């Protein structure tokens, strides 16, 4: 394989990752967001309020539910 084949494959693989500033599912009904503000904005966009569950493992954000 030459670099012209590997470059598009590498770009495709890196483009499929989740951005670090996004709200993502953590477990059943619980979401993870990097900050409290992003969690509040996510729930507000759905017309709901956040319920804080705690800190995410390794302090990678906050855990919450929208209700």
Essential attributes:
single chain, 67 residues, alpha+beta, four-stranded antiparallel beta sheet, 2 helices, 4 strands, 28% strand, elongated, Lipoprotein
Task: Quote the average pLDDT.
Answer: 83
Rg, nearest Å: 17 Å
Q: Count up the helices.
A: 2
Strand order of the largest sheet: 1-2-4-3
Estimated helix fraction? 25-40%
Classify the beta-strand content into a percent band: 25-35%
Helix-strand string = HEEHEE
Ends apart, CA distance between termini: 52 Å
Total beta strand runs:
4
The stretches of 5 or more residues where confidence is low (pLDDT under 50) are: none
Judging from the principal axes of the Cα atoms, what is the shape?
elongated
Q: Major sheet: size, sense and barrel closure?
A: 4 strands, antiparallel
User: Which structural class do you get from the secondary structure elements?
Assistant: alpha+beta
Overview of the structural elements:
It comes from Variovorax beijingensis. This is Lipoprotein. The chain is an alpha+beta fold. The protein has a domain at about 25-65. About 35% of the residues lie in helices and about 30% in strands. The protein contains two helices and four strands, in the order H-E-E-H-E-E. It has helices spanning about 5-15, 35-45, and strands at about 25, 30-35, 50-55, 60-65. It has a four-stranded antiparallel beta sheet with strand order 1-2-4-3, with helices on one face. A hairpin with a 2-residue loop joins strand 1 and strand 2 (about 30-35).
